[in-house]
Design goal:
172 residues; alpha+beta; 4 strands; rod-shaped
Length: 172
């Protein structure tokens, strides 16, 4: 596959990765579409291999989470009419799903899914690094502001023409 094809797939997959419960996940419908199977077939394969999907690999959305996903993601509006709450797969769960499907397309696409998660992780870490540098800069500026205020107050005191106390004469 060409590099541009890979970039397009990674970009398409990145758009489908959501943040739910503090985890970056991809919904079962999106994962099934990427792997070229129906959502029903994906979920059946997952049920047959339930021991391969601990809670940190996959979890089922609550009704409230499902409603929020449907509201925020136009491409998942069909979930609105489904009586079943969808599964959300983490990076590891998406790879495990490829292994239980065991189709050539699933294995090929799993590489792109890993790359998409890795790129998102790099973006997030870049933001954290930038946030840390901004916080450090704010601390430095805060220290300088404090020092500048002290100097300004000292200059004001020097500029304030207070009458000098009268000197007493020495002697009788």
């Amino acid at each position: 596959m060409t590099k541009t094809g890979a970039l397009i797939k990674v970009g398409q997959i990145q758009q489908r990765i959501l943040l739910i419960r503090g985890e970056k996940v991809i919904m079962d419908a999106d994962l099934a579409e990427a792997y070229g199977v129906t959502t029903k077939a994906l979920n059946q394969a997952v049920r047959r291999n339930a021991d391969r999907f601990p809670p940190d690999f996959m979890f089922r959305l609550t009704k409230e989470e499902k409603q929020q996903v449907v509201t925020n993601c136009d491409h998942l509006e069909n979930l609105k009419f489904s009586p079943v709450t969808p599964h959300a797969f983490t990076e590891h769960g998406a790879i495990m799903a490829a292994s239980v499907l065991n189709s050539p397309r699933a294995i090929e696409v799993s590489v792109f899914i890993v790359r998409a998660f890795v790129q998102l992780r790099e973006v997030v870490s870049g933001h954290k690094e930038l946030a840390g540098k901004l916080a450090e800069l704010e601390r430095k500026l805060g220290d300088h502001d404090e020092q500048i205020l002290i100097m300004v107050n000292a200059i004001k005191q020097l500029m304030d023409p207070k009458p000098l106390p009268k000197k007493r004469q020495i002697g009788f």
